[in-house]
Amino acid sequence: MNSISIIGAGIGGLTLGNVLKQHQYDFTIYESAPEIKPVGAGIMMAVNAMQVFDHLGLKEKIEKAGNKIHRIVIANESLQTISKTEILELETHYNSCNVAIHRAELQKILAENLPSDCIRLNHSLQTIRKKEHYILDFDNGNQIESTIVFGADGIKSPIRNQILKTGTIRNSGQKCWRGLVDFDLPEKYHQEAFEMWGKGKRFGFVKISEKKVYWYACINEKSFSSEASLTDIFKDFDSLVLQLIEATENGNIICNIIADLALIPKWYSENLCLIGDAAHATTPNMGQGACQAIEDAYIIGKLLEKKQDFNAVFEGFQSIRSKKVDYIVNTSRTIGKISQWEKGNSFRNFLMGLIPESMNQKMAKKIIELEM
What we know:
Blueprint: E1 2-7, H1 11-22, E2 28-30, E3 42-45, H2 47-55, H3 59-65, E4 67-69, E5 71-75, E6 81-86, H4 88-94, E7 98-102, H5 103-112, E8 119-120, E9 125-130, E10 134-138, E11 143-151, H6 158-164, E12 169-182, E13 192-197, E14 201-207, E15 212-220, H7 230-233, H8 239-247, E16 253-261, E17 268-269, E18 272-274, H9 277-280, H10 289-306, H11 310-339, H12 345-354, H13 357-368
Parallel strand pairs: 1-2, 1-11, 2-8, 5-13, 11-18
Antiparallel strand pairs: 3-7, 4-7, 5-6, 9-10, 10-11, 12-15, 12-16, 13-14, 14-15, 17-18
Helix pairs in contact: 1-5, 1-10, 10-11
């Protein structure tokens, strides 16, 4: 019989494992994949996530494996800046900085810091039911009984669907390609996350290590033919964009529909709690999806220091976290629409340019401040 089970070895599940380990709890993480392998190309760990990794003693390791980012820039198709947010001041204040990193590198660092026998691969959860304890049936035939269950099993969470019977996935109408490429970026882009806004589409890139650049290309699905190639779609953007796309092998490009989760009333049930995307999946427009899962794990740890009863922790966890994640889900959804407007783009860019940098920094501070 397992006392604590975490379903899903994504960034949220692995961070939660590290938090529970720090508090000397025994747990097992079940992951459907046969190995923890590189999915999702690159990712940005914002200052809020890096503060959590600092508490876990992993900050330096993650900084070393990735690339530090000191500013966020939004530009038009020809690389002219619309708005920028410098975060050096916030970095000094919180003693952490944004780090762009390969997702697989980050998962590896988190997994290697856990006892080697606590992650069970090839365990895809089929059914979960509540008897005296939870009965978990996996598709490899294994059945586990567990007292406490954490669902870190993503936007399509089987745990949310089966136990809480809630959750509407909302398609944003946007499609996103993500690529990873060895590329020599001009030096001025080395320490910044750069995103270009066009008409019904945008393109972003960031350096994630010595050699590698992570890029993404998003479009309003209804506005482009499904036959059109990426180079066709972005031919009116600066040539740097086309160079990045053309230098990337097809095998290093993944394509997904962007979706989020409509706000759900409750993230927990008796002895069971959802974290990360399973509870509050957001669109990637603020780069906060994984960061919010990391914050979830941190807050659960903080609450466990005060009370040992998991059900009280789960209740406290949602009441502390819901305001911030609701704000992020809603704001991110809005940014997604604005960044891919089809009409009046130069006016949009002009208005964006009027927002003083101090406002951008205020918004950044609101996001990166930890609740406890």
